[in-house]
């Protein structure tokens, strides 16, 4: 096995360890820039919509054979360099005691959100992660069904983003309830973040044990707070979370609207930092320094534009990365419903074609 002496390093077969994607996570040079896309399996694909006309979203997540098929189909159709587990960041909230529903048109709803500190006092960290056994079974099936050269990314929601859902009871524009709870009840907030952190670390390590080579933490809504709040209310937990991930596993740290948080996120952990389209990739990477890779940062809405606009933006991003090892091409956030599939496929080809060394 190559350079790494850790457990996971030894467990990862050479063909995977030397894949473009994992090399880029380790900031090693690659033949072309690796690319995968957040939400690469989803409603923009007619095959996905047809599957969803027969089963609900939660049933799909909880049926390992279907989840595996969804992951593998998307990765192979698009020709990307990594597959991502089909699941959702909110699944972990169920075994933590939350009543989760994905209602049509409204997105996720939690029917018993946290309202006061006593609700947190009643919670317990997930010591036995087997309640999410269907996820690990999906990971096993995906690993077995994927080409042996294609890495599989496991994932979880980061504690702040999960806390937002657990307190708001669903999506939100300003996170008034979650942030008010954080300011008003700092001790209960800390207890909640600790429970989410420890549970998430165990959950991710179980995904790794089942066959994931990399893990991404989605801190999708962390851009709603500023640097001082990040330092006080989030960063210590993120540091502890990354420190608990099995050594040798590639770690990706994603958020949106994080222009003012990037250095703090880097210091919290992750081999690769996600960048959305609101920042310039070159300036952001200069700020982060050479010790981390970056992932991003095409605007998902650019995929609705004509192909020459997509090509121009792709070339610009690759030019900003300037061939530095450690760039993983991705969108700045997930693919949206109604995105033209042929544009997504074309994007993947362009990244490979334009980045040939
Ligand atoms: O990237 C992938 O292809 C893997 C699967 C994946 C899903 N959700 C499937 C999904 C991943 C990685 C996620 C992460 C996720 N889920 C995040 C973080 C990323 C981000 O977008 O910021 C968040 C915030 C969620 C929570 C969530 N799940 C929301 C807000 C919604 C509703 C909005 C929407 O897009 O429908 C979901 C549902 C969801 N998760 C769908 C899919 C394919 C659509 C469900 C359907 O089929 O109707």
Low-confidence stretches: 1-7
CATH topology: TIM Barrel
> Major sheet: size, sense and barrel closure?
7 strands, parallel
SS content category: alpha/beta
Helix segment tally = 16
**Average pLDDT reading:** 96
Separation, N- and C-terminal Cα atoms: 26 Å
How many E strands? 9
Helix content, binned percent: 40-55%
* Structural domain count: 1
Content of β-strand? 5-15%
Which molecules are bound besides the chains?
coproporphyrinogen III
Overall, the morphology is globular
Order of helices and strands: HHHHHHEEEHHEHHHEHEHEHEHEH
Q: In angstroms, what is the radius of gyration?
A: 19 Å
CATH architecture: Alpha-Beta Barrel
Assign the CATH class: Alpha Beta
Strand line-up of the largest beta sheet: 1-4-5-6-7-8-9
Question: Can you tell me about this structure?
Answer:
- The chain is an alpha/beta fold.
- The protein has one domain (5-354): TIM Barrel, CATH 3.20.20.210.
- 47% of the residues lie in helices and 12% in strands.
- The protein has 16 helices and nine strands.
- It has helices spanning 7-11, 14-17, 20-25, 46-52, 57-62, 64-78, 117-121, 133-145, 159-168, 176-184, 186-210, 227-244, 262-268, 281-288, 307-321, 341-354, and strands at 83-84, 100-103, 107-110, 152-157, 214-219, 250-255, 272-274, 293-298, 327-331.
- The protein has a seven-stranded parallel β-sheet with strand order 1-4-5-6-7-8-9.
- Helix 6 (64-78) packs across helix 8.
- The protein starts with 6 loop residues before the first helix and ends with a helix.
- 46% of the residues are buried.
- Bound molecules: coproporphyrinogen III.
- The site of coproporphyrinogen III (CP3) has 21 residues, from strand 3.
- The site of coproporphyrinogen III has 21 residues, from strand 3.
């Amino acid at each position: 096995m190559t350079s790494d002496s850790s457990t996971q390093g030894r467990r990862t077969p050479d063909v995977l360890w030397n894949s473009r994607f994992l090399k880029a996570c380790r900031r090693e040079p690659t033949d072309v820039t690796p690319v995968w896309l957040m939400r690469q399996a989803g409603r923009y694909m007619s095959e996905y919509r047809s599957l969803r006309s027969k089963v609900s979203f939660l049933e799909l997540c909880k049926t390992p054979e279907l989840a595996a098929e969804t992951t593998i189909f998307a990765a192979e159709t698009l020709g990307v360099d990594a597959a991502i587990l089909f699941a959702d960041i909110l699944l972990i909230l169920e075994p933590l005691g939350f009543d989760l529903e994905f209602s049509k048109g409204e997105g996720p709803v939690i029917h018993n959100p946290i309202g006061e500190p006593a609700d947190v006092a009643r919670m317990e960290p997930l010591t036995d992660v087997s309640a999410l056994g269907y996820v690990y079974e999906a990971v096993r099936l995906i690993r077995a069904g994927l080409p042996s050269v294609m890495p599989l990314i496991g994932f979880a929601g980061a504690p702040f983003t999960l806390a937002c859902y657990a307190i708001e009871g669903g999506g939100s524009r300003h996170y008034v309830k979650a942030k008010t709870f954080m300011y008003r009840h700092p001790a209960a907030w800390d207890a909640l973040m600790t429970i989410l952190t420890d549970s998430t670390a165990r959950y991710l390590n179980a995904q790794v044990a089942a066959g994931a080579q990399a893990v991404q933490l989605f801190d999708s809504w962390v851009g709603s707070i500023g640097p001082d709040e990040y330092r006080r209310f989030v960063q210590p937990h993120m540091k502890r979370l990354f420190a608990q991930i099995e050594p040798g596993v590639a770690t990706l740290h994603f958020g949106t609207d994080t222009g003012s948080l990037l250095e703090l996120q880097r210091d919290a952990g992750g081999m690769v930092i996600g960048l959305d389209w609101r920042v310039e990739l070159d300036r952001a990477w200069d700020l982060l320094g050479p010790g981390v890779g970056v992932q991003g940062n095409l605007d998902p809405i650019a995929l609705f534009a004509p192909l020459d606009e997509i090509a121009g933006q792709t070339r610009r991003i690759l030019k900003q990365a300037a061939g530095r090892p450690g760039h993983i091409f991705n969108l700045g956030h997930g693919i949206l419903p109604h995105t033209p599939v042929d544009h997504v496929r074309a994007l993947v080809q362009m990244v490979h074609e334009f980045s040939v060394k």
